[in-house]
Structure formats: structure tokens, C-alpha cells
């Protein structure tokens, strides 16, 4: 074994994150999006659907999003247990959060936009029943797939065994100078080509 037992990087690197519930839910949703985009590209490449048909890409996206929900649950529960914060029933909230993190805000915004479109009488507005079908597809198919993936991910995973002891307190980060503060950096970044 190398003599890395108590080196500074090891003590800080393997310390638990500040909010593991949100971190692992975001990781699960990001992995679902990655698998979803790759699946849409593969489906389009092999000519399973005709991409010029109106609404074909949207339909494929919604169907594949539903079936890739298990990926979000699996990765989220796997990582939540891996970082060692799997106490009690919090893993259930982790799986629910990973299943709701993207679809719920998207559905609320789409519902509000559709309500405005219906109010103005545009032809682009979706019928209310179509919106409800998408909602029930998420509630009755997507969430159960997320829970199934979460249960499998939790059972497959084991707690992380770091190679060294970790520090409970974070390392003190020195104060930044005025020119390295976030507002100044944002202002100066606009001048770069």
C-alpha cells in the first residue's frame, strides 16, 4: 500500500457532500438524459421512425423518456447508498426526487404555456386530454420504472470504503481578492471574445 493514509487530498476528497440527496438525484436525472439522447440518436440513425413526420420526434422522446426512467432511479439509489447516507427511508425520497426533478417543472411550465395558448385560441395549443395523457403516462409508467430502478440500484450497491480516514470538517478556503470575486469575474467574462 502506498502511504496515502492521511495525506491532505485523501482526507478532503472522500468527505461526504453537503446535500447528498439532491446531488444523487441530479446525477440520476443527468444519466437518464444521457441515455435518452443517445437512444433518440440511435433510433433516428437506424430509421425506426420517419423524422420528418410531424410529432414523430416528440413521440419517440416521450416514450423513451418513460422507459429510461429506470436509469435515473438506478443511478440515483446506487450513488446514494454508495456515499454512505442510506439511513432509514430517505432513499425513497431520493428515488422520488430523481423521478420528479425534470418532469414536474417541465409539466407545470408546459401546462401554463398551453393554458395561455388556449386562452388566445392558437392552433398550436394541445388539447387538455393530451396533456392529461402525458401526465398519466408519467405517473403510471415513468414513476414505477424509476422506483424499480431505484430498488435494483439500492440492492446492487454497497457502502463506499474509502482508503483513508476522512475529515468531518471542510478545509478552510482563504478569502478571495476583489478581482477574483464572482460579480467581477462575471463582468469581466463578458469582455472576452
Quick structural gist:
The chain has 193 residues and is mainly alpha-helical. The protein has helices at residues 8-13, 20-45, 56-67, 69-82, 90-100, 103-120, 128-156, 182-189. The chain is 64% helix and 0% strand.
Description:
It is a single chain. The radius of gyration is 22 Å and the shape is globular. The model has no long low-confidence stretch (mean pLDDT 84). Helix 5 (90-100) packs antiparallel against helix 7 (128-156). By secondary structure, the chain is mostly helical. It has eight helices and no strands.
N-C termini distance: 48 Å
| Alpha-carbon Rg, integer | 22 Å
What is the H/E order?
Answer: HHHHHHHH
**Separate helix tally:** 8
Beta-strand segment tally: 0
**Which shape, going by the Cα principal axes?**
globular
Main pleated sheet: none
Our estimate of the beta-strand percent is under 5%
Structural class per helix/strand content?
Answer: mainly alpha
What is the mean pLDDT?
Answer: 84
What share of residues is helical?
Answer: 55-70%
Low-confidence stretches: none
Topology:
Blueprint lengths: L7 H6 L6 H26 L10 H12 L1 H14 L7 H11 L2 H18 L7 H29 L25 H8 L4
What attributes does this structure have?
193 residues; mainly alpha; 64% helix
Amino acid at each position: 500500500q502506498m502511504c496515502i493514509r492521511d495525506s491532505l487530498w485523501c482526507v478532503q476528497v472522500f468527505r461526504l457532500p453537503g446535500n447528498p440527496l439532491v446531488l444523487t438525484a441530479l446525477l440520476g436525472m443527468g444519466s437518464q438524459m444521457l441515455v435518452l439522447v443517445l437512444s433518440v440518436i440511435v433510433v433516428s440513425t437506424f430509421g425506426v421512425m420517419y423524422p420528418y413526420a410531424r410529432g414523430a420526434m416528440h413521440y419517440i422522446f416521450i416514450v423513451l423518456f418513460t422507459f429510461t426512467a429506470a436509469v435515473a432511479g438506478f443511478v440515483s439509489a446506487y450513488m446514494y447508498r454508495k456515499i454512505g447516507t442510506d439511513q432509514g427511508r430517505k432513499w425513497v425520497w431520493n428515488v422520488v426526487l430523481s423521478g420528479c426533478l425534470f418532469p414536474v417543472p417541465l409539466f407545470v411550465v408546459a401546462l401554463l404555456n398551453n393554458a395561455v395558448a388556449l386562452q388566445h385560441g392558437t392552433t398550436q395549443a394541445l388539447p387538455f386530454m393530451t396533456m392529461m395523457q402525458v401526465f398519466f403516462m408519467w405517473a403510471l409508467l415513468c414513476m414505477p420504472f424509476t422506483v424499480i430502478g431505484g430498488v435494483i440500484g439500492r440492492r446492487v450497491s454497497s457502502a463506499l470504503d474509502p482508503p483513508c480516514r476522512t475529515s468531518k470538517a471542510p478545509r478552510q478556503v482563504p478569502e478571495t481578492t476583489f478581482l477574483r470575486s464572482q460579480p467581477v469575474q462575471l463582468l469581466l467574462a463578458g469582455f472576452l471574445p
